[in-house]
Amino acid sequence: RSWREQLDEVSIRQKDDLSVIDYLCKPSERFQWKANALPDDDLCYENAIILKRFIRYPLVIDPSGQAVAYLKNEFKNRRLKVTSFVDPSFIKNLEDTIRFGEPVLVMDVDRIDPILNNVLNKETFKNGFRTCISLGDKDIDFNASFEMYLVTRDSTAQFTPDLCSRVTFVNFTITPSSLQSQCMNKLLKSERPDVDKMRADMLKLQGEFKVRIRELEDGLLSALSNVQGSILEDNNVLATMEKIKKESSEIQEQVAKTDETMQQVEQTTMLYENHGGTIAASLFFLLESMGNIHTLYRYSLTFFFELFSES
Questions:
Q1: How far apart are CA 21 and CA 286, in angstroms?
Q2: What residues are paired with 168 via a beta bridge?
Q3: Among candidate residues 122, 146, 151, the one with its CA nearest the CA of residue 59
Q4: How far apart are CA 217 and CA 223, in angstroms?
Q5: Which residues does residue 83 pair with via DSSP β-bridges, in sequence order?
Q6: 150 within 8 A of 71, measured Cβ to Cβ
Q7: What is the β-pairing status of strands 138-141 and 103-107?
Q8: pTM of this prediction?
Q9: Per-residue pLDDT tens digits of the chain, which is 311 residues long
Q10: What is the DSSP letter of 152?
Q11: Is the CB of residue 282 less than 8 Å from the CB of residue 184?
Q12: Phi first, then psi: what are they for 219, rounded to 5°?
């Protein structure tokens, strides 16, 4: 059952056009993610939200390498360290990142080194005014800004239930709908850059309008919660309501204009999605199935995108 059906069962109202992606991240964040090499499709945006909001350290399943490329760009200004369990300096890199609060990317995680147990469990303790964590036979300072991302390229990897309970799985394995969306976006950008730019601008505007409306609603709730005495006698509340009413009407007019433009853009986009995205996605999964015949016929997603761009 979908989450909407479950909400209907308990009589909880919801918006028909509610988007989880729009609710959990801002348009400016999505454009930044896209600029950092994150593929432009809903699956990748949902994964990026998880990577931003995780509680347990993420274990990323990334057969195509798209997530690694995104993470390297996302943390390029924070001295991201890339290592693996077979790296001779793995322990030193891990100690440095924990001590100085830097992100670390651990590659090819087909198994977990026991030395990470305390880190995965976040078993910190106080030593005077210091927050420490045990790493092997050493106690080192723990910086709250430390972030660890575990990555495996094997989409069929099997992990123990114990590990599954201590990490957040983020699956970047390509799906037909995700690949179709990515191919359509690449084709649209190549064939109709004007439509692609207009589409990006309209999506950004619509996102900004939604954020502004949410801010106005929060402002109204804040004013109502701080009212003293009768609402009709509180000039501050009345002024706030008048301002919100005026701004809301202006925003609604702008939203209506962008909706008209988006309908025209979507008509053009659908042509490329039906004739380009669907066919390209089908071809890739056909090529991928040939790997079952012989390993010689295994093709990476990067290789496929290179051929797709050249064609």
A1: 30
A2: 58
A3: 151
A4: 10
A5: 106
A6: no
A7: unpaired
A8: 0.74
A9: 677 888 888 988 887 777 788 788 877 788 889 889 898 888 899 999 999 999 999 999 998 888 999 999 999 888 899 999 999 999 999 999 999 999 999 999 988 888 899 999 999 999 888 999 998 888 999 999 999 999 999 888 888 888 899 999 999 988 888 888 888 778 777 777 877 777 777 777 777 777 777 777 777 788 777 777 776 777 777 787 788 788 878 877 777 777 777 777 777 777 766 666 778 888 888 888 887 888 788 788 888 888 887 77
A10: E
A11: no
A12: -65, -40
**Contact (CB, 8 A) for 265 and 202:** yes
Cβ-defined contacts of 198-201 (< 8 Å, 24+)? 198/261, 198/265, 199/262, 199/265, 199/269, 200/31
Task: Count the alpha carbons within 13 Å of 257 in the hemisphere toward its beta carbon.
Answer: 9
In angstroms, the CA 127 to CA 137 distance is: 16
Please tell me the total number of residues recorded for the chain in this structure.
311
- DSSP structure class, residue 291: G
- Say which amino acid occupies 244: I
Please report the DSSP string for 191-238 in residue order. H-HHHHHHHHHHHHHHHHHHHHHHHHHHHHHHHHHT--S-GGG-HHHH
Closest CA to 211 of 54, 24, 45: 24
CA-wise closest residue to 4 among 13, 177, 43, 210: 13
Task: Name residues whose C-beta falls within 8 Å of residue 68's C-beta, 6 or more positions apart in sequence.
Answer: 60, 62, 105, 107, 151
- CA distances for 222 relative to 180, 193, 215, 218, 252, angstroms: 44, 43, 10, 6, 22
Beta bridge partners of 103: 147
